[in-house]
Amino acid sequence: MENTENNKTKSVAGEGGYMLEDVPHLSEYISHLPAYVNPLQDNPSYSVVKQNFVNEDDSVTQKVYFESDEVLACIVTCGGLCPGTNTVIRELVCGLHYLYGVSSVLGIEGGYRGFYSKNTITLTPRFVDDIHKRGGSIIGTSQGGCDILKIVDSIQDRGINQEIRKRGLKVAVVGIPKTIDNDIPVIDKSFGFDTSVEEAQRAINAAHVEAESFENGVGVVKLMGRYSGFIAMYATLASRDVDCCLIPESPFYLEGPGGLFEYIRKRLKENGHMVLVIADGAGQELITENMHTIDLQQDASVNKSLEDIGLWITQKIKVSSVLVLAFDVAKSDPTYMIRAIPSNASDNIYCTLLAHSAIHGAMAGYTGFVVGPRINERRNRVVITDRMWARLLSSTNQPSFLDPKDVVEAKKERAQPNQLLSGDNP
Amino acid sequence: MENTENNKTKSVAGEGGYMLEDVPHLSEYISHLPAYVNPLQDNPSYSVVKQNFVNEDDSVTQKVYFESDEVLACIVTCGGLCPGTNTVIRELVCGLHYLYGVSSVLGIEGGYRGFYSKNTITLTPRFVDDIHKRGGSIIGTSQGGCDILKIVDSIQDRGINQEIRKRGLKVAVVGIPKTIDNDIPVIDKSFGFDTSVEEAQRAINAAHVEAESFENGVGVVKLMGRYSGFIAMYATLASRDVDCCLIPESPFYLEGPGGLFEYIRKRLKENGHMVLVIADGAGQELITENMHTIDLQQDASVNKSLEDIGLWITQKIKVSSVLVLAFDVAKSDPTYMIRAIPSNASDNIYCTLLAHSAIHGAMAGYTGFVVGPRINERRNRVVITDRMWARLLSSTNQPSFLDPKDVVEAKKERAQPNQLLSGDNP
Amino acid sequence: MENTENNKTKSVAGEGGYMLEDVPHLSEYISHLPAYVNPLQDNPSYSVVKQNFVNEDDSVTQKVYFESDEVLACIVTCGGLCPGTNTVIRELVCGLHYLYGVSSVLGIEGGYRGFYSKNTITLTPRFVDDIHKRGGSIIGTSQGGCDILKIVDSIQDRGINQEIRKRGLKVAVVGIPKTIDNDIPVIDKSFGFDTSVEEAQRAINAAHVEAESFENGVGVVKLMGRYSGFIAMYATLASRDVDCCLIPESPFYLEGPGGLFEYIRKRLKENGHMVLVIADGAGQELITENMHTIDLQQDASVNKSLEDIGLWITQKIKVSSVLVLAFDVAKSDPTYMIRAIPSNASDNIYCTLLAHSAIHGAMAGYTGFVVGPRINERRNRVVITDRMWARLLSSTNQPSFLDPKDVVEAKKERAQPNQLLSGDNP
Amino acid sequence: MENTENNKTKSVAGEGGYMLEDVPHLSEYISHLPAYVNPLQDNPSYSVVKQNFVNEDDSVTQKVYFESDEVLACIVTCGGLCPGTNTVIRELVCGLHYLYGVSSVLGIEGGYRGFYSKNTITLTPRFVDDIHKRGGSIIGTSQGGCDILKIVDSIQDRGINQEIRKRGLKVAVVGIPKTIDNDIPVIDKSFGFDTSVEEAQRAINAAHVEAESFENGVGVVKLMGRYSGFIAMYATLASRDVDCCLIPESPFYLEGPGGLFEYIRKRLKENGHMVLVIADGAGQELITENMHTIDLQQDASVNKSLEDIGLWITQKIKVSSVLVLAFDVAKSDPTYMIRAIPSNASDNIYCTLLAHSAIHGAMAGYTGFVVGPRINERRNRVVITDRMWARLLSSTNQPSFLDPKDVVEAKKERAQPNQLLSGDNP
Asked: Where is the Phosphofructokinase domain positioned along the sequence (chains A, B, C, D) (predicted)?
């Protein structure tokens, strides 16, 4: 039975319309779990809304399973930086405090590892008051040791949650998925995405200015996106200055008819300059192939640098086309400037919704779930047979680089249910 | 029969999920209207997507009722400025050109009036290439003579459309609603809204810095919103620095228990400073009442300035509270800085979707419709019994300023169908 | 003798070339004042520079008259907000700590009044580490009670300093002049000025977009500058979008030939739109005259609002020209957005120089002085016979609005020594 | 005689105080050169200023040697992009037109090469009206073929000028030096510098956020500066977030006591994170040494990538310190984002001054000169024995990495005349 549950999605209702689906509840394994009246019912801010709770038989918010005094909330941030992390922290702290009267909130320092090795920081509304205006994570994070996907997996698979359950602990575990690439398997839109696209557009704009100012200028902008090209796709659509956008979902090749170099030459001939946006994970197979042809006895750090697709393709362009045209290639990698900026207004609001959903769900006794709109189980990837990608192709006029085999495969994928971000509602 | 049609909504399917509903089609009044194969079917960018057109029996995009060569497209912009106007113009021009091969596009200068009194501008992809990076409208606009609501009404009521129909002209009329206040009756989210909220947040931030630096400092920020408080609400939620947000939908009063002044005094006592955000149209009835008490013989321009709620309330605060506390009041009105900025990345993408929807619909022979997500017929207003407003009240801790009568009324409103923006999906 | 001293400038050498001139020294009234070796001589950062101290017989930095342990430094900020205030505070704290080992630094809360009525804040390098990224003043300020000019005067006139001297106290008093208007009588360039011009330019840009989008659109931007028009002049020169710039130094009139209205009409006829920048203090005499013609029995708050030149002139333009042309007037007042922003890079560096100069001077035993480049005794005003103003006139093509009498007067002024900002070296 | 001239500086008076020094004049080699009344004398904007021309016997502006109608002005931009290039172009076009009535202005497309191979663009005030708001160069530029230093040299050495002279042509050649690194041999401050420092500070800020969020996080920011470290130095001073700044002028070493790695370990131990700013040209000799130790048979593109000091040092840090501490290194290279942005307000004004100086000088018959403040003949480099560098060392607390030999050498350099930027006047 446990097994079958592992294969199901565990989602929870966000405040306004997200659906609750098979989310484990503390009462399932703790007997005689006392329930309390939800303090929100006395909150004057919610007094008008409150009336509706009853009508709608909204069990999530009717009762809570924790008393304000007994709650000790811990917040940990893991993985790479992402705009909005501090806003989520702020809203968790303020939401717990102002909505449910919870005053004991700890920040676990330095990511997942911080649970066993580091100090904790006491988080108060006063302490977090201004942190949403700063990038980064005030409680620190760590990469490697704790992969965001693994944690989501472990929550989903009840790695953490199961252990807690086995011991009968009254602990609610909630995840707010965070990935700047938008490639989280379980939700459709990750916080910080809007902000990242905005900043990525700035880099594209700079590359465009650069390319335009030189004869046969080629601006290459590498953007985040190891497994999915959402940032590259959206930034391309937003900027309107891109001539070619390469993403992991859409294979391409360099040489020969229909290849990238042919297209670059064509564009330079027509316009005298071009901008190429490339997601981190695009064309990795090309690099791998290529690596076999180079002497492998060299310094590991050299290999490492070659795996940077932006660097690699910039050098390839320089070398390959020198026979045909002389040109200038400018390479930009705004990754770290994007990761570190504070979230913009729309992400701030979105972070608040996510934080509040997490709080409401946990207070209502649910555990082992992640919050976010329209939860799905597959890794979130750009659907290249979708209209959004078609719109991009049409806006850049780039070839699809697809051969008939790819199209067939793509259509199969298309048959599966659609996602918010790859769809048309922004 | 005409009458019944007037009472119905005329919407059209956007590219990704918007619904077509009772939109008039040229073939309804032009007999033997020839149809052509949609050139998009040969567009390589849409080649993969194209396959789906057939499967989905997508009549909108299967056939077109205009040949590329015969099309003369006219673009006119009306009403106040709004971020994204130039992006919409750009995408109309580029979309017509690259998607449907339409090369005759004219811009009508100076708004609606330009149809009879002004020159036109030839719009080419090259001419509009960079305009999305500039604020304003490159073809000019005008206020007063042509009210956005009237145009939408006239399109909806077939004022324009009917006349065209009567004469049997092969003309498709499409509206892309624009209002920085988000108070358009027929759609849920207007373009430029995200950008406006972002910029409004900047003004709030400045007011917060100002207020914080002075003993009993009060920062007053007036934002756009004559009939609805969306920008004020969203900017407040995004900034987290606001102590009180006043909008037209939520009545309030100044003096006495539960009034605004009491709240201001309380906040100043607690924190030593506060920020007040007020939408343009909030408290207009208070001003009107007040005007009767002043001598009316004065200069009209003086009256005019009193109608500025930001100015009025700033002066009221200064005068009223001087007995209790000495304080500094700083008033900011960022209206013109917000209106004039270029649209941000997410609005750029949204503008593209709207422009493409308009083009696809018109080419497919539909007319007399407006584009936008989730079309509804009521004026779009903040629903103060909704959770988003509750969340705002909870985030600012301000009183609801509601008396029991208001609550009852609010609940009635609540019974009606919900809107996207006032709901929880951002 | 005291009297003659009052009439002289008391300047002090900044680090790199400012001149020391008649600055009082503690040793003048405290006998047997012990001197110590300057700890900077052991500071490895200054070790190479240090060698030069000896060669140049640099008495300022050779000896200090305070031991690190005995110093209690107090920082107070007065008057309106200005970009860079927090940077100056930060650099005073860090400079005292890292350069001279001074660890007791107090912030006096709430401006000058804070000396007798408020708490103090202990300022450590850690506490001030990030404050230069925030606008405002972390220790608060107050207006009215303490006028920046009065303080500068009182320091200059030895109001404070004399009293200290009379009592034989070992206290060094240093002022770092702050005024966003750049109208400080004793120095040439105030910190925050560059930042203010940058932000003012943003507002002008918005007004330009607005004006350009409407037929006969007039954008009016009111900028700070009660006594001098530096911000207006520099923002006008930087933006290149302004058609007319009005400053307190250059009188103008509205009606008749050569008047403002004639010029506005001319410009609208030529270009179809225009941007008018007006400094706070420009045309005040016009308002005063005008006030006599209105009924004075009205509400004081009404009068107050009329004194706003931006508002007043906007209404005058609307009324006066309605006979000739219909137009739209958009008025923007970015004052509070400008005051509250953090300082830009060049101001950050300038604030550091000022703070370090203050520290070095005080540690060296000087007192009763202000720091800044090229100290002069007259109120700093735009010299309208100078080339910078000519350049502005030429860039806007506006008339000089001068009558022969003004020119004669202007030339007299010209005879006096020139200022940095009104000169050509930026 | 030619030789002696080559060794002298050829400077020209800027409008406000720059000195004219041995600048060749057309009348020296064209006999009977007619002179005309300067049209500025009738320019109402300069009418007040004009009176002064006479008094000051200002020969530059009294007479001009070109009639408006006969002038054909050509503008060419060479070398890499730099903020402000378009502003200079704009002000040359507008200045020639509005100040001297010159209407024939051509832009040479694509840099120096454009003189023989490319088309020209007609530049009118209308065409250039908005270009100062865009980055890049609207007339294009080219690198390599034409080195800015070579051009300056050739103008100085009369390469171009001499040829013109030999043929007795009535052509005035003027250079406005441009280098984002501020390392121009003949002037003290290049346009675009302020803007570049501002943008560089943004990158440093992002690196700081990144570093702070990870345990032992090291942020590495590579900035422009192949021969001089001005941008690195000023951005470091402005941001206050940097722990170590490495520039070409100040040698350093990696291993051993007093080396970079020791300092990094120390800082990480103290603070848990650090930010390292490194100018392009810093430590090149270390890379060169290192290259000999690697197998040289590898792909040229690999070598190329190793020459990137930012990449190289990032990898060195990763490898070298792995024994002592585990840490995250984030590398940022904002070069192309800095080069491509529009100039800020203060640079806009500075560009205007430079453009006007060039125009006035050329119209007055001078030729073969460059414009700019305080012209000197040595390559402009950071003087590491100067107080500005000491201030940086003190602000970062980094070691000087100097050994006694370096100090002696540095002192010699110190003996030579000082520069504006390395001094204290910003």
From this structure: 74-360
CA C63 vs. chain centroid, Å, equals: 32
Interface subset of C 52-71, CB within 8 angstroms of D:
52
Strand C329-332 relative to strand C217-223, pairing: parallel
Contact predicate A416/A378, CB 8 Å: yes
Minimum-distance CB partner of D332 among A134, A294, A336 = A336
Distance CA D419, CA A344 (A): 42
- Tell me how many helices (H) and strands (E) chain B has: 18, 11
CA distance B99 to B50: 13
Residue type, B100: Y
- Whole-angstrom distance, CA of residue B152 vs CA of residue B380: 14
Pairwise CA distance, residues D205 & B16, whole Å = 40
Residues in Cβ contact with A395 at an 8 Å cutoff, skipping those fewer than 6 apart: A236, A237, A240, A242, B94, B98, B352
Choose the catalytic residue: B181, B183, B194, B280: B181
**What is the side-by-side strand order in the sheet with C120-122?**
C73-75, C105-108, C120-122
DSSP B328: -
Q: Residues of B with CB below 8 A from C110's CB? A: 215
More confident residue, C107 or C421: C107
Q: Distance between CA atoms of B359 and B94, rounded to whole angstroms?
A: 10
Please tell me the distance in Å from A311's CA to the nearest CA on chain D.
8
How many CB atoms sit inside 10 A of residue D288's CB?
Answer: 10
φ/ψ of residue A63, rounded to 5: -120, 150
In the set D22, D130, D181, D241, the catalytic residue is D181
Q: Do residue C213 and residue B337 have CB atoms under 8 angstroms apart?
A: no
The candidate with the shortest Cα–Cα distance to B80, out of B131, B145, B142, is: B142
Q: Are C381 and C228 in contact (CB under 8 A)?
A: yes
Distance (Å, whole) CA D282 – CA D223: 10
For tokens 């080339």, the residue is C387
Residues A17-75 pLDDT 10s:
444 556 778 888 888 888 888 887 777 777 655 443 333 333 345 688 898 888 999 99
Partner residue opposite B210 with nearest CB, options C136, C142, C208: C136
CA-based nearest residue to A396, from A229, A227, A194: A229
Tell whether A159 lies on the interface with D, counting CB pairs under 8 A: no
As a whole number of angstroms, the distance between CA C95 and CA D394 comes to 9
Residue of B nearest to C118 (CA): B215
For testing the chain B interface, which of A49, A91, A395 should be mutated: the one with the most B CBs within 10 Å? A49
SS3 state of residue A412: helix
**Distance between CA atoms of residues B174 and B161, nearest Å:** 9
Enumerate the H helices of A80-138 as residue ranges.
85-100, 114-117
Question: In which element (H, E) is residue C384 found?
Answer: none
Rounded Cα distance between B31 and B21, Å, is: 22
A contacts of D207 (beta carbons < 8 Å):
336, 340
Taking CB atoms and an 8 Å limit, are C46 and D402 in contact across chains?
A: no
Summary mean pLDDT of chain A: 75
Q: Which residues of D touch A137 (CB under 8 A)?
A: 213
Candidates A97, A90, A140; CA nearest to A115 is A140
The pLDDT tens digits of the residues spanning C172-222 come to 888 888 877 766 555 567 899 999 999 999 999 999 998 988 888 899 999
Say how far apart CA A336 and CA B214 lie, in whole Å. Answer: 37
Please say if D194 is a catalytic residue.
no
Q: D179 CA to chain C: closest CA distance, Å?
A: 18
pTM comes to 0.82
Does the beta-carbon distance from B213 to C81 stay under 8 Å? Answer: yes
d(CA B348, CA B134): 12
- 3-state class of B245 per DSSP? strand
CA C353 to chain centre: 16
